[in-house]
């Protein structure tokens, strides 16, 4: 059934939802990992994304993502390492349970993939924190594919992989003794390593501890978090980061904000001349542990993106390569080894510009990017907005995007590029009713 929309009477944030309703209203149920899900006006998941669900690149021990995943798991060797959790979660799990405010931009249909109003693809591994704590896990890692609508370029892909880690301590004298012991052990290890750390105070007025936490315990947990992650940075980047051999690894801590931790931090590593953001972390909000019914405890947690780190460590220049099945890519990697990727001849890119008048409801860049990706798959290298224009008299707006078509695995002929570009134009007209300029 198609429901006609009248956007003029709706708040702005509903426009796109209704617009999507027009596009997707006749869609059949979505099938994911053998399960059928009904669709509704919220549905915005595309078949290009559905195709990626279940690929589980990080589970392949000789894929760069799998190699990195194993390296991190073996670093935290006494943590329970979980994989294979279903990516379909409720918005409550992904956002509400973690204290995301109702108006957080991540919830928007332009930023996340919704299967229907009650289910979405997780946007981060933190979506599984509550259920993992609730199972009684005290020190754990969780690796998974996560999904976010995004622009298209060499470092953004709507499917990527994260690892979440957490460690729970009892909020009593025994927990305090465990923390003191572990902190002494880790400090000793770091003091003997070639690492320089730029730190921030664990707790400040702008990065406060939680009122429910004992001040001494909160400091000890924050310190344990920092020491544990500094030690992970040594495992990942030590001896690999410096331009010259023997140079120390430089790690920088920055105050951050996440709805589900306080205090919160980001970690950056100085790698081949640049500061690179590696992960987010903090002391878990007590309401998360309360929701999981874990009493009298305090925990830290972190989350990191595997692609970003693997691109650095293996010198992989384009995020799409992780999905390549070309033997020239896959044969370069061996389980347990970090080696430098040797680029093979890149096939030439071929760009086409597309200029059109926007529909009166507007068109988000992510809607355009998803349409291109859904039409041409991985044959799009990047999409760049090169011009926006509003006609002074008619007030009509237009946009011009440059789409770079390029295959990772073969040469794309100009004829083929023309024909897929024509398909993009035709889909753009069908779905959004735009007028080509
Ligand atoms: N979930 C966050 C993200 O995707 C990363 C993160 C930050 C995870 C802080 C954590 C954390 O566990 O404590 O950006």
SSE topology sketch:
Elements: H1 12-24, E1 30-32, E2 35-37, H2 47-50, H3 64-75, E3 80-82, E4 88-89, H4 91-94, E5 114-116, E6 119-121, H5 129-134, E7 139-147, E8 159-170, H6 173-191, E9 195-198, H7 215-237, E10 249-255, E11 261-271, E12 274-284, H8 286-291, E13 297-305, H9 306-313, H10 327-330, E14 350-357, H11 365-376, E15 380-390, E16 397-405, H12 414-432, E17 435-436
The chain binds 3,4-dihydroxyphenylalanine.
- The number of strands is 17
| Helix content percent band | 25-40%
Using only C-alpha atoms, the radius of gyration works out to 24 Å
H/I helix tally = 12
Residue windows where pLDDT falls under 50 for at least 5 positions: 1-26
Order of neighbouring strands in the sheet with most strands: 3-7-8-13-12-11-10-9
Let me know the CATH homologous superfamily of the largest domain: Bira Bifunctional Protein, Domain 2
Assembly type of the chains comes to single chain
How many structural domains does the protein architecture include? 2
- Please write the string of helix (H) and strand (E) elements: HEEHHEEHEEHEEHEHEEEHEHHEHEEHE
Q: Would you tell me which CATH topology of the largest domain applies? A: BirA Bifunctional Protein, domain 2
Backbone structural class = alpha+beta
How much of the sequence lies in strands comes to 25-35%
Mean pLDDT score: 92
Provide the list of bound ligands, each named once.
3,4-dihydroxyphenylalanine
GO biological process, one term: phenylalanyl-tRNA aminoacylation
Enzyme class: ligase
Function: Is responsible for the charging of tRNA(Phe) with phenylalanine in mitochondrial translation.
Protein name: Phenylalanine--tRNA ligase, mitochondrial
């Amino acid at each position: 059934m198609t429901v006609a929309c009248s956007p003029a009477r709706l708040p702005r944030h509903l426009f796109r939802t209704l617009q999507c309703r027009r596009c997707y209203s006749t869609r059949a149920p979505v099938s994911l990992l053998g399960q059928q899900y009904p669709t509704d006006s919220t549905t915005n998941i595309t078949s290009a994304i559905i195709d990626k669900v279940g690929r589980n690149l990080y589970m392949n021990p000789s894929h760069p993502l799998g190699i990195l995943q194993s390296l991190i798991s073996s670093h935290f060797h006494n943590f329970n390492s979980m994989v294979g959790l279903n990516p379909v979660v409720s918005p409550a799990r992904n956002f509400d349970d973690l204290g995301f405010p109702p108006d957080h931009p991540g919830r928007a249909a332009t930023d996340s993939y919704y299967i229907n109003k009650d289910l979405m693809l997780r946007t981060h591994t933190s979506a599984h924190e509550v259920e993992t704590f609730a199972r009684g896990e005290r020190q754990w890692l969780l690796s998974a594919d996560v999904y976010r609508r995004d622009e298209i370029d060499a470092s953004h892909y709507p499917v990527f992989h994260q690892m979440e880690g957490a460690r729970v301590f009892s909020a009593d004298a025994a927990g305090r003794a465990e923390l003191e012991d572990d902190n002494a052990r880790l400090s000793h290890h770091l003091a003997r390593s070639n690492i320089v750390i730029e730190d921030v105070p664990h707790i400040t007025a702008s990065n406060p501890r939680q009122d429910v936490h004992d001040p001494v315990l909160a400091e000890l947990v924050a310190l344990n978090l920092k020491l544990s992650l500094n030690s992970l940075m040594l495992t990942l980047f030590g001896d690999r980061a410096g331009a010259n051999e023997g140079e120390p690894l430089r790690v920088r801590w920055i105050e951050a904000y996440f709805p589900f931790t306080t205090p919160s931090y980001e970690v950056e590593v100085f790698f081949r001349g640049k500061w690179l953001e590696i992960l987010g972390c903090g002391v878990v909000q007590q309401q998360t542990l309360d929701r999981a019914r874990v009493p009298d405890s305090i925990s830290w947690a972190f989350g990191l993106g595997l692609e970003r780190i693997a691109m650095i460590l293996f010198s992989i220049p384009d995020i799409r390569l992780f999905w390549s099945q070309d033997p020239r890519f896959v044969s370069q990697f061996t389980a347990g080894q970090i080696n430098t990727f040797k680029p093979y001849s890149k096939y030439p890119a071929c760009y086409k510009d597309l200029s059109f008048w926007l529909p009166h409801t507007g068109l988000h860049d992510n809607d355009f990017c998803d349409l291109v990706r859904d039409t041409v798959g991985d044959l799009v290298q990047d999409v760049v907005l090169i011009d926006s224009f509003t006609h002074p008299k008619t007030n009509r707006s237009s946009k011009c995007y440059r789409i770079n078509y390029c295959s990772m695995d073969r040469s794309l002929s100009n004829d083929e590029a023309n024909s897929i570009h024509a398909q993009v134009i035709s889909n753009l007209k069908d779905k959004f009713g735009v007028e080509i300029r």
